[in-house]
Amino acid sequence: MKGRLMGSVSYENVDRVAVVTVDNAPVNALSQAIRSGLSDAFGRFQTDESADIAVIIGAGRMLIGGADISEFGKPPQSPSLPDVILQIEQSAKPVVAAIHGMALGGGLEVALGAHYRIAAPGTRLGLPEVKLGIMPGAGGTQRMPRLVGADTALKMITSGTPVTEAEALQSGLIDQICEGVDIREAAIDYAQSLLSDNAPARPISGLPRATDSEGVIQQWRAKLQKSSRGEVAPLVAVDAVEASVQKSFAEGLKEERRLFLHLMDTPQRAGLIHAFFAERAVAKLPEIAGIAPRDFTRIGVIGGGTMGAGIATSAVLNGLAVTLVERDSEAADKARTTIASNLDAAVKRGKLNAERRDAILNDALTTVTDYDALSDVDLAIEAVFESMDVKKEVFAKLDEILPRGAILATNTSYLDVDEIAASTSRPEDVIGLHFFSPAHIMKLLEVVVAGKTAPDVVSTAFALAKKLRKTGVRAGVCDGFIGNRILSHYRTAADHLVLDGASPYQIDKALTDFGFAMGPYQVSDLAGLDIGYATRQRKAADAHPRDRYPAFADALYHKGWLGQKTGHGYYIYEKGDRKGQPDPEVEQIIAQARKEAGTSTRTFTDDEIVRRYMAAMVNEGARVVEAGIAQRPLDVDVVFLYGYGFPRWRGGPMKYADMRGLDSILADIRTFAETDDHFWTPAPLLEKLVAEGRNFDNLNKAGKE
Ligand code: T1G
Ligand code: NAD
Questions:
Q1: pLDDT tens across 571-594, in order?
Q2: Which ligand has an atom closest to residue 101 CA?
Q3: Rounded mean pLDDT of 250-269?
Q4: What is this structure's pTM?
Q5: Whose CA is closest to atom 10 on ligand 2?
Q6: Buried b / exposed e across 407-441, counting CB within 10 Å, b at 16+?
């Protein structure tokens, strides 16, 4: 935040209306300067005999985006936000909140401190604090239930999801929606009409406690206990709302403060705030600072299988025109059908209307078999079979047909992007764009920068990620880039655990209890055991004699148990069941593989399973950073949060390592090395950081300020 103005609050009298404007671009966060400015403005309003009503409004895009997150973890500076809001609420003269753009967190709490609320069309109102590991801490948990009832309040507070102005009007959260778009004018008119009606100051703290709380609090608590997967803030927020229906306003406010300060101190808060800033930092790369992206409106997609159809869906859904090339007309038709059904699903979810879907299918999507149709595309993304020969053949055609200045991208998972680039006459225009499956849903895009890729091509890749509403993370060229390279390492650690005596079911359970969306064997079943088999085949030639081989996985593959798609993998899937049941036959196959490998088995605690899995992930993460494949540890974190189901509240694997202590991770690796010093060799970067008493966050910050 260094160098940034911390904002100001202005006071202007317009025909007996005091207009108090919060100005702190980009989101009018409630920094210390804003809190103190608001306090001064309301002090002045009380003694200003020429003003009978006040309007609080935000300059620029929104009312207020919340407390200033960059102040978290630092010593609090007065005035506190709860005090400022109390001061506003206690005004004897009425106060109106004029809400446009967004009123989030502390911003909505400021609006709740006002006596009347008017919002512009297109506004979002929410209490997103749980997404940062905290809860509303400036009266939101006490005023919201009094205003809209316990159920609606709990829904907003525990989900963190904002509501529209129409929903807010319906629940009673706001009093009016303004007709035009000029919120300032509308709010002044509204204030004046309140004055002519002699409308009084109307503090929410004076309203009776919510009357719909009977049973509702318990229902929410029970629901969240099931769904929270280790996340603490939503449940603590329920306690705060409970206080609002059991205690006086003043006592409730005290309880809210106590719970809020407790959450501020948790590692989950630290993990989630790290995630917030990390996902914004990934696009800030010195190599593209100030470099304009190339224009792109027409995209080519080559191959319309699992990935190509998903990539094309994402592009057309986000306003790009797509020409998709397949091998034959049957495959082209199949791709069109897949995309149409993806769009139908979007219509069902309310993300798209039927006319728009039809317009996309008629006008924005072209499916062909002739590469000549790519002669006017700005950017082509190849998603054909994972074979260097096939890719080179496709890139030769793209090189021949695409206009000069167009970008040639590959969605390869593992192949060498430098080699693909070198096979063309324009390596500077070649880049890897590694999407994740399903490509129209998953938010991660690894931007794989090859040796000769031009900076404006990198810049365009990040612009494309933004256009597709995805998070782009820069990766360098290596086998598997950031995510799959690290995955392959910790996946091996999991297979070693199985060989040494743990069951895949215990491993999956230990890791989902840790917070992962799925365990490694559930992931295998979802992706298909043929994928892992192909990877093992591909890597067989480079295997080291001391590598341990998961023969049980090959055995399942040879039985045709490929996972969910065949109804049987590590788990058995009844028709329509995606969860799967453990299979004793799989355990027998594993026992046989252990016997053949001559391994002696033992039991593992869930804690040791997690420690081994995480140590492998962090160790390889450190190597990836050291090799410059990831620019910073935070890039690794974002890849895992967005592409691999890593629990967001732990901040990512590298943040997790920092919070546990790098010395503790290194000590684990050294202990595991006592029985296997081939797999468990500490990454030199990890050893160096421990020796220097530094951590990954120090590397994130290096070069800044
Ligand atoms: N504090 C400080 N900086 C913030 C900020 C905040 N609340 N919100 C955004 N920024 C920075 C952000 O880091 C980025 O900086 C720039 O503003 C633009 O943001 C007492 C405790 C409002 C929906 O959780 O969700 O109130 O990268 O790129 O896409 O109960 O920002 O340019 O240097 O995200 O247009 C509750 C967090 C706080 C909202 C706008 N509020 N912000 O999205 O822009 S807790 C939130 C957002 C609280 C009280 C409590 C989004 C946005 P830089 P951006 P955007
Ligand atoms: P897929 O087999 O589902 O689809 C490949 C498609 O390419 C097929 O429809 C095929 O007909 C078509 N094709 C083959 N040669 C062609 C050619 N010369 N011209 C036009 N079309 C051709 O494979 P997929 O899973 O979609 O994978 C495609 C690429 O994406 C691979 O490089 C893969 O490694 C990568 N990838 C896959 C995933 C995943 O989870 N499946 C994730 C990320 C990246």
A1: 999 988 888 999 999 999 999 999
A2: 1
A3: 97
A4: 0.94
A5: 303
A6: bbbbbbbbbbbbebbebbebbbbbbbbbbbeebbe
